[in-house]
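Ticket #439: bound-state structure for zinc ion.
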Amino acid sequence: MKLLGSLVLLVLCLNVMPQRVTAQAPPAAPASVAVQSAPASQTSQYTLPPDKLAKAKALYDLRGKLRVIDTAYSLIVLLAILSLGVAAKYRDWAEKAAKNRFVQALIFVPLLMLTLTVLGLPLDAYQQSISRQYALSVQGWGSWFRDVLVGQAVALVIFTLAIWGITNLIRKSPRRWWFYTWLMAVPFIIFLIFIAPIVIDPLFNKFEPLDQSNPQLVDAIQKVTQRGGLEIPRDRMFLMKASEKVTTLNAYVTGFGPSKRVVVWDTTIKNASTPETLFVFGHEMGHYVLNHIVIGIIATAVGLFIGFYLLYLIANWAFARFQPRWHMRELGDWAAVPMLLLIFSIMSIISQPIGSTFSRQLEHNADVYGLEVTHGINANSQESAAHAFQVLGELSLSYPYPNDFLVFWYADHPPIRDRVLFAHNYDPWSKGEQPKYVK
Ligand SMILES: [Zn+2]
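RESOLUTION: The complex was predicted; output attached.
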């Protein structure tokens, strides 16, 4: 469900937030296209053939509606859990079963999460059925359900620790818990980002060294990394077997310190020409070189500092107002946890444009870097990039005319339309201007 999803996202997907790439290649152009022989055709704008455009429009409208329904539904579920006394009942069971608060957490948090997951399952399954219907996903239901269970298991570990920690801090320091929570959250998030590629990601997808299956591609990539004046060791490049589940393309940078790496989906290599794959890699390399993960962590830390303080203020107000109605004894009571989640969710919804705008800027910077670092390596670096976006958009049925307000509010990447235009027109070299990142 969205609420849990967004909370997990906050913690887990930092490693996905600023570093998802979006670049693709020609649908039918296999990797046999030589690096130096990029097509001379001109992709000057993002367009879809009529049948795909109709599908993309239908999908865009449907997803827009689902987003509203999903958001409203997740808030209503939390409200219901509070007002129907479900949270208080779970608290009573946990407290009856054990004196120790950690053991209580081991009872209360799974009960709460199971409730949220079960209630959110129909909507999640519907979203997956849409992805299958539009042929964006090829994942079977058994595999999908397994992923849900594994995801919940991972989230359960994280949430149990987090909720146990926060409620303890609230009880011990009613005035400064928000600060101590922040103090503990930041290293916890860094730790999660560090272990995610090693411990969490392999639970959902298979990874292998890129060198193993695509040594020539790695050779070509190393030309790009050298051009950027950077050594990304070969063993920091991975291939993800995305084709077992999806038809769309992607690549990303993830991890922190010793676990930092670049991951390319196998669907990218299958669908993109080598120059286009190199551009995709160049974009990811941009995230890597420009330290977008660290910037993302710092931005998250700043956001959480403000967020936890606001949570503290709002939670005190809400507690005073709803205490009897929601059967809460104190703010550090288990029964108050759904209220904290509710406030946090509402704050996340309201603050979404800040994160989206920030992310779009980083993505744009990575696009600039990708264009610059492949210039002189790809025969027509602008066209490779523009066409990569064209293929990406076509394969993911990205609607070419998204609503500006929705882009501002939700989009973590610039619209494909803008990226194609930018790639097509970005040419500081012929204008005698200085490239921004790669001289
Ligand atoms: Zn990116």
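RESOLUTION NOTES: The longest helix spans residues 337-374.
TICKET STATUS: resolved
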